[in-house]
Amino acid sequence: MASNLKNLSDFGSAQIPDGNGMKIGVVVAQWNEEITSALCKGCIDTLKKYNVNENDIVKVNVPGTFELTLGAQHLLEYTDVDAVIVLGCVIQGDTRHFDFICNGVTQGITQLNIKYNLPVIFGVLTTNDLQQAKDRSGGKLGNKGDEAAVTALQMVALQNKLEQNYTNSI
Fold first, then answer.
1. Looking at the chain, which runs of residues are DSSP E strands?
2. Coil, strand, or helix at residue 144?
3. Most buried by CB count within 10 Å: which residue of 7, 21, 76, 77?
C-alpha cells in the first residue's frame, strides 16, 4: 500500500507481540542522517514500548544505505539477535545512482532473509524528495522506523510460534 494512503505509525487492529526476551539488531545508515536518526528513534522507541529490553537492542551505524546489507550480515554472524532491522534513506537525484542503490540493498536484504532464516526487516525510505522522507520519518505520514520495529516483533513471534508448533508435533 502506498504510504501516502496510510500513516506508517498506525497499526490499527494488528496484533503486536510482546518483545520481552527478544534481541533485535538495528543497522542505521549515516547518509541522510537527519532522516535516518529520526527513523532510528522511532524504531527504538517502538521496540521499548513493546517491552524489548534496551540491553537487547544492538544498534550499529554504517556509512550509507548500500552498506546496510553487510552491516546486517555482521549482526547475524557475530551476535545472537532474533531479527535485524535496517534503516536508511535514498532520495531520488539526477542520475541512476538511486536505482542502483535501491536495487542493491533490496536484493541484499532479501538474500539475508533466505540465507540466515531470520527476519531482516527493510526499513529503507526510497523517496522522490527530502519532504517525502521527512513525512515518513516522523512527519505527517508517521515513521517507517515504527513500522519496521513492529514488523520485526511480528516476524520473530511468527518464527517462534512455527518452530514451537513443529517441535511439539514431533
1. 24-29, 57-62, 83-91, 120-127, 137-139, 142-143
2. helix
3. 76
| Cα 9–Cα 10–Cα 15 angle in degrees, nearest 5 | 110
Q: 3-class DSSP state for residue 157?
A: helix
CA separation for the pair 116, 83 (Å, rounded):
10
Report which of 89, 22, 90 is spatially closest to residue 58, judged by C-alpha positions.
22
| Catalytic residue check, 74 | no
The total of other beta-carbon atoms located within 10 Å of residue 1's CB is: 5
Pairing of the two strands 142-143 and 83-91: unpaired
Predicted pLDDT at 100? 87
Give dist(CA 5, CA 149) in Å, integer.
20
Report the phi/psi class of residue 12: left, alpha or beta, with left for phi > 0 and alpha for psi in -120 to 50. left
- Read off φ and ψ for residue 49, nearest 5 degrees: -55, -35
pLDDT, tens digit (0-9, with 9 covering 90-100), for 110-164: 999 999 999 999 999 999 999 999 999 989 999 999 999 999 999 999 999 998 8
3-state secondary structure of 28: strand
Instruction: Say if residues 157 and 24 touch (Cβ distance below 8 Å).
Output: no
Among 10, 49, 79, 97, the active-site one is 97
H/E stretch holding 107: helix 97-116
Cell 552491516, residue?
Answer: 71
